[in-house]
Write a structure and sequence with these properties.
Blueprint: H1 14-22, E1 30-34, H2 39-50, E2 54-61, H3 68-82, E3 85-90, H4 100-119, E4 123-125, H5 130-143, H6 147-150, E5 156-157, E6 160-161, H7 169-178, H8 195-210, H9 214-239, E7 245-246, H10 247-252, H11 255-268, H12 278-287, E8 297-299, E9 303-308, E10 311-316, E11 326-332, E12 341-343, E13 349-352, E14 359-360, E15 369-370, H13 371-377, E16 390-393, E17 396-400, E18 404-405, E19 417-423, H14 427-433
Parallel strand pairs: 1-2, 1-4, 2-3, 4-6
Antiparallel strand pairs: 5-6, 7-10, 8-9, 9-10, 11-19, 12-19, 13-16, 14-15, 16-17, 17-18
């Protein structure tokens, strides 16, 4: 342009540029913005409006402080000035057990999920910044973490996006000052009881004084960890076979890949993320190792990892105790009653459980087989095998209830026999594994 100064440069607004560069929100998207009333969420809300997006605001009142109602009213006023629809919820039930911060966070995300469905929003935007990434990294390092913890926080998880992770808190302050917008300050951000507050107020400033620039170096390290973690997640996802993991694949994978496989398997079973501790993941990987394995691993959210054949499955944890097994034996003239095995008369039968070296020649099969192999073919979970009731004649295995009967001890059809039933085996396995005509 004539008369323009060639040295003049266009000033780029870091908040607007961070929002645009994130790529999470595209034209036409309906966005639900989580607004606490503080500087970060206020700047995000204003930036979304200035960018021309279709925005609905959402505020969750934790009802943990006396002034929480005033904060909610502040957010209402801000939304009115911006001409936005606002969805507000106030906590009316007790916090979940555990830390106050974790419980409040869980309830806030539940609120945002409801608001997202109510508003029909494509994405839920949350106003975490570059400073939050660094604080998260330091917190995770202090507690002990792996590669995933070094990321600080993921930029996207499902419908939740964090488009300002490249923006620093100082840039947020400047952005609001230019526009003459006065946000609220959360009193919780000055409470020494919270580890994040101590990291923000004491640890990071001390590190920065001693090693100028270290905060931004933490941020760059987190970016590299994010790229590596995404690579691991991609490898793990391709290793899952139709959403399932096999024991041999997990056992052969490098530990970081195996750990990510377990996290993805848990997530696909409906588990919350993040929820698995390092102890959970270690126990899950241990179950994949060669050998008889353990009795399964209990996981958060009422789930349990178990081995079925080669498959590693996460299922709902049993909450009802199985009844004690009962053996019923009566003389029979040769009936064809379903749900019973028929053995030769005169056998002295008893209940027992598996011991090393048990074998049987199953009726209808070929040759003698190990009990272990019979269980594997019937897809009995590894953790159930030691507790599976067996029927013995003396020391010889006569019946594997729900699965097989000894060919040497089976009576011929229509001849006098012992009518044998066993109660107390898992009904779900009985119904899944029995073939037509199989004895019980």
């Amino acid at each position: 342009m004539e008369g323009a100064n060639p040295a003049q440069q266009v000033v780029v607004d870091p908040v607007a540029e961070g929002l645009r560069a994130s790529g999470f929100i595209t034209p036409g998207d309906r966005v639900l913005a989580a607004v606490s009333g503080g500087p970060d969420s206020t700047a995000l809300l204003v930036a979304l409006v200035e960018a021309g997006h279709h925005v609905v605001a959402a505020h969750y009142d934790h009802a943990l402080q006396e002034e929480s109602a005033r904060v909610a009213e502040h957010v209402r006023g801000l939304s009115r000035r911006l001409g936005l629809e606002l969805i507000v919820e106030r906590r009316e039930r007790a916090l979940p057990r555990g830390s106050v911060q974790a419980g409040a966070r869980a309830l806030r995300y539940e609120c945002l999920e409801r608001a997202q469905k109510q508003s029909g929003a494509h994405v839920v935007a949350i106003a975490h910044t570059a400073d939050d990434v660094v604080e998260g990294v330091v917190l995770h390092l202090l507690r002990g973490c792996g590669l995933a913890g070094m990321r600080g926080m993921p930029a996207r998880r499902g419908v939740f996006v964090r488009p300002l992770l490249s923006v620093w808190r100082s840039e947020i302050v400047d952005y609001l000052q230019v526009r003459g917008i006065e946000p609220l300050q959360d009193p919780a951000n000055s409470k020494d009881a919270y580890a994040r507050v101590r990291v923000r107020r004491d640890i990071l400033p001390a590190l920065e004084r001693d090693r100028p620039g270290i905060v931004k170096r933490f941020y760059r390290a987190a970016a590299r960890a994010t790229a590596l973690q995404q690579s691991l997640e991609g490898i793990a996802a391709t290793s899952l076979n139709n959403g399932a993991a096999t024991r041999s694949v997990v056992a052969a994978a490098p530990e970081p890949v195996g750990a990510e496989l377990m996290r993805q398997l848990y997530a696909r079973a409906g588990g919350d993320q993040p929820a698995l501790s390092r102890a959970h993941v270690k126990a899950m990987l241990g179950l994949a190792e060669a050998g008889r394995g353990g009795r399964g691993v209990d996981l958060p959210r009422g789930l349990r990892l178990r081995i079925v054949g080669e498959a590693m499955q996460i299922v709902a944890r049993e909450t009802v105790r199985r009844p004690a097994p009962e053996l019923s034996v009566s003389d029979c003239s040769g009936c064809d009653g379903a749900g019973a095995a028929h053995l030769k008369p005169g056998l002295d039968l008893r209940l027992g459980y598996r011991t090393p070296g048990l074998r049987m020649r199953p009726l209808g099969g070929r040759g003698t087989r190990k009990l272990q192999d019979i269980f594997v073919d019937a897809r009995v979970p590894r953790e159930d095998r030691d507790a599976w009731p067996l029927v013995f004649a003396g020391d010889a295995l006569a019946i594997v209830p729900g699965i097989a009967v000894s060919a040497e001890m089976a009576a011929r059809a229509g001849e006098p026999s012992l009518h044998v039933t066993v109660r107390g085996i898992p009904a779900k396995v009985e119904s899944l594994n029995r073939l037509p005509g199989d004895p019980i």
